[in-house]
């Protein structure tokens, strides 16, 4: 996370230097994403082609989703980030709290061009991604097939990786306890449901290796520090490309949309719109999905895609079996309580 | 003779100018004071702007409560007339509907919703849902219309929550930071055990800081002693090694420890190769890793004050004690060691206070059971943007640190230091 | 001179003691020294002469490279310092800054595990001995230099050692206080009858206090004697120059006649002096103290009667120093009481001076040029 700061700095410096050398007069858009393999794919699919199309150059940056940075910028009236990749609960909350611009879709394209639920007042979907179970096929004899297996420390001894936070962790606990995907949020909305989830977590508390950055679980899996882990599906694909024998279990995966948003008061709003429009084009989204298996949000992008690539996406019909979407409203409502409760539980 | 009488004249102040001598003295002193003042002015201004002001504003954040107070003033005024039993008067409903309507679509409504959701989960969607249905058609009965939108508007507790959260300031965050809250009847109650976390974390912060300080002292004392005893050339060399870690950033050092301590890291490989263990020892993501890295980072802060104090203690004291018949180790303990107390005090205080604020090292090398107060401050600042809570935790940490410092000052502080000041 | 009858067996004795720190040079070359019980012995010498090293070997903080040191007849070469029961006063007092004055005095008694009441009584008595009875609860840095010095002395004596070592203890005091302390130390030593070994580089301090003085140079004792004999009968040029003021005249011994000898000075004059360690034919230095040179009429009665030219007068109030040219020595100094001075004398005047043979000493053979 923080260790990547220096790399980001170098990248920014190189980008800035390249810009100066090229002598382009085009404005420079600062685009902040979650970094890692995701950012590499974005660079290939969006940043590079955007600059090549003479739309303007991109200064890439990364963050870990901390809305505080955006809030501080917006409140201080000194917004230096022009386009930001945001997860859906943060987008909804930020939109209500006035952190993000209400988008003018005439500058982007018709909402109908996008898959349903991937566009909103303040954000345009970039891709659909999934949090799934993954394991190291070299280290496990039998393949796990569900979150119930994840909880079965007798059959699959060893440490397990989970993201340090209530979100997804509680859902997975309920799935492992036999709750149907469709009922997960209904159950979690009750006091008993929360107790149930934490009780389930208690069973494997000592076996959990918590991770915070998306880049960590593939490393933990590859090094054998954990035998299974919750992962962002795109990170596993990147590790597979490096020759690691990591496998994904789509059953019980939870998908969500990451969106582009413009922090309120960005001085380069027009350039930001131009970038978002460019990045939402079907041909560019196809390049992105080919780089990293995240599903496109532009309806037209899916149609012209290599079927082999399409099969790896969270949005592939085969992969959607047993999967469900995260409930953004639920997390905006209960997030603070549940995260607090989770912290209290984890710190004990 | 003349010289003598001149001196006498000069010594006796002229009758007319008796007060003026005092005045002149004061004026002269004043000039000196102004000069001194001017010398420290830049630093004073810097401290005021970069230290006092941010801390003061941080502390006010921890009791600041503007969301409901600023955005629903009429509703709150009407609520004052209500005794809290039964349903509030209709005027409350009317004022509330009007204010909610005007807040609709602005960040204000999100603020209200977020704040009330902290009083009672579910409030956010209630506010949002209600706002969406506004404005109400003209000449409707507002209370029943609201209750129709959501039955919760017909419950007294819903309105009590608004009244509770309506003050300009609130003890809510500070109480939450010590696992306390105010119940519906206005009593301070302890949080249920499954939600209580901060008192525990604060105790852990103290405990871990104490352990790290102790380890630094145990490891640092002999090094500082050796450095003070050795010839300049050799002690300079040692000093170089003590300061070497300062040349790399904390992050790099933490990353290096990850590489060394991980399951397939160097240390585990060596331990397994020489047959001390069969499987890898868990050195990372637990206390061991955090202690190792923190001690490594903080050791120089212990060694340097110790060294500077020990350098000032003449070896002649121990000789004197020995010459008085005291065996060497006892001499060291009775005569040398007490004189290093100011150094131990300064070093321990420095290390302890730095420990209390540690964030990166436990975050990267520890499990959730190793996280200290700073982790939660960062969590509330960055992740959930609950700055009131972050400020409250900071205030509690600051308060605890100050109490600690006062204890230090009382028992090991300036007066003691003065008594043991090396000659 | 000693107030007690010196018993036959020496209190301390050094035999063939050598000390080297680096294995190349000897800081103490060959020390043979007997210290009598109850005497006040001063080790005097310039810095680097080995006197402090001797003291430290006796205290036990340094070990001799060879030779043996005996205390009360026992060889103590390998006895650790805390078992030697020797009191010591250090240059900067070394009072423990974290203890009150009284605690400093109690320290050596507590270490010896004396009963608490006895510890207290002895500490208070020691405090009274140095007249600081009301300062017990103070801390060392709240005292003046002289007071600290007295406490350090009391602390070194409170456990009643028979031998007390003092390493330039008065060096940090100003002149008046130093002179006062010299007498005080001397009195306490005489009252208690302890043996004191005192190190200093200040010759007047040594002359004031000591029963005997050992003059150190280059790692060996040049002469050990009473103050009077050191002054009047220095064994060599180093001692003559180090103790008091001295004039030297260069010449060759022509004849030795019992206690006296005739020396032909380089300017041709023949003088008569007492014989040091010279033989006929040696080139030698003849030493004479400035106050032994006679200017007035009584000069004619002296054995030696020489011509000199007055160069300079220096008035010292009660006496006058006159610098003259004498027999090739341009720095020949004469000290005379002001009442004996002929006030018509001016610089450049030719005068005749007299020196008694008893006060002139042909010291030692000069090394061949």
Describe the overall structure.
The complex is a heterotrimer of chains A (348), B (423) and C (369). Chain A is 45% helix and 18% strand. Chain A is an alpha/beta fold. In chain A, helix 2 (36-52) links the parallel strand 1 and strand 2. In chain A, helix 6 packs across helix 8. The longest helix of chain A has 20 residues, at 328-347. The radius of gyration of chain A is 20 Å and the shape is globular. Chain B folds into three domains: 16-61; 66-168, no CATH class; 198-419, Orthogonal Bundle (MetI-like fold). Chain B has helices at residues 2-11, 18-61, 66-71, 73-80, 90-103, 107-119, 123-133, 142-149, 156-164, 172-177, 198-229, 232-243, 250-261, 266-273, 287-311, 316-323, 328-356, 360-365, 373-383, 387-411, 414-419; strands spanning 180-182, 188-190. The radius of gyration of chain B is 32 Å and the shape is extended. Chain C is an alpha+beta fold and 369 residues long. Chain C has two domains: 12-237, P-loop containing nucleotide triphosphate hydrolases (Rossmann fold), CATH 3.40.50; 245-365, RNA polymerase II/Efflux pump adaptor protein, barrel-sandwich hybrid domain (OB fold (Dihydrolipoamide Acetyltransferase, E2P), Beta Barrel), CATH 2.40.50. Chain C is 23% helix and 34% strand. Chain C is elongated and about 75 Å long. Chains in contact: A-B, B-C. The A-B interface holds A 2-3, 64-69, 71, 93, 96-98, 164, 198, 209-210, 212, 223-225, 329, 332-337, 339-341, 343-348 and B 106-107, 109-111, 113-114, 117-118, 121-122, 124-125, 128, 194-197, 200-201, 204, 251, 255, 262-264, 285, 360, 363, 367-369, 371, 376, 379, 381-387.
